[in-house]
Amino acid sequence: MREPLFVKQNAQKWTSFEQEPTNDPDELADRFIQITDDLAYAKTFYPKSKTTAYLNGLAAGLHQSIYKNKSEKSNRFLTFWKYELPLLFKTYQKQLLYAFLFFMVFCFIGALSAKYDENFVRLIMGDQYVDMTNANIMKGDPFGVYKNGSETLMFFGIAVNNIYVSLITFVSGIIFTVGSVYYLFRNGIMLGSFQYYFFSKGLGAKSILVIWIHGTLEISAIIIAGAAGIILGNSLLFPKTYKRMVSLKRGAKDGMKVAIGIIPILIVAAFFEGFVTRHTEMPIWLSITILASSLLFIIWYVIIYPNKIYKATQTYHAIQS
């Protein structure tokens, strides 16, 4: 694209960014990403033009505004989930991948064990739960367990339990990473055998439409908690160029941020389990919509958005250097 046309297409946007400043963190982030994209394009095709110099100054101003706002206590809460946590996901993407792969392998082991040992599900889930579920299946209400008790009490109980499990999964990483992998093993084996149980009863598709309404966020958060524990454990095992204690403090700090950062996801998952999952006869399209929205959110927030923020930050620093 020729430079005059490039300027014509974007001049109004640039002028509005310059003449209409904002302190809204979301708007600042959006403006910064747009300007760095334009600046990267200009730097590539018009490296010595006045347009490039102008965009460089505009990007610098937006960058300063973002970090100025980040230093304000009132915005610290928001910027943690807007910038800091996603960038941690990007920094520790290998640990997230390892936790995911561990969990999937353990799920497969659980399903395989349940297939070849009819007592395995009882060993993992307990006789009481299996007998109750078998009775519910006979009554034509296989997921009746989610309808028991008060919605509000169930929500609070599940939320507290899930947060506890996730924090334990993280903290256990101090045992040379093995502790967190063990909790991924426990949860993976349980999920694999649990899911196979329903498939063996001819209720596989139905179980996905019901259980994964809350399970998508809940299981994703447990995997992320496992990754936080791996961050902690690896900082002790593999200090790299840092002194071991310095590396451990750094790993503990970053791992704790990740573990705390997923608490809102666990709360939403508990809300779904307490108030939504119990409606097992909801329309299929609604169940799929909730499930798919949860999955897309996890993919976007943990993978896509962190890469976008990282790319924008790297572009800015590369241009400045």
Observed structural traits:
elongated, 13 helices, transmembrane helix, 0% strand, 2 domains, 321 residues, SpoIIM-like, mainly alpha
Secondary structure: elements and pairs:
Blueprint: H1 3-19, H2 25-45, H3 50-70, H4 73-91, H5 93-116, H6 120-125, H7 127-138, H8 151-171, H9 178-200, H10 204-237, H11 244-261, H12 263-276, H13 284-320
Helix pairs in contact: 2-3, 2-13, 4-11, 4-13, 5-9, 5-10, 8-9, 8-10, 8-12, 9-10, 10-11, 10-12, 10-13
Keywords: Membrane, Transmembrane, Transmembrane helix
InterPro entries: SpoIIM-like
Transmembrane segments: 96-116, 163-184, 196-213, 219-238, 258-276, 282-304
What does this structure look like?
This protein is mostly helical. The protein has 2 domains: 3-71; 87-309, no CATH class. It is built from 13 helices and no strands. It has helices spanning 3-19, 25-45, 50-70, 73-91, 93-116, 120-125, 127-138, 151-171, 178-200, 204-237, 244-261, 263-276, 284-320. Helix 4 (73-91) packs across helix 13.
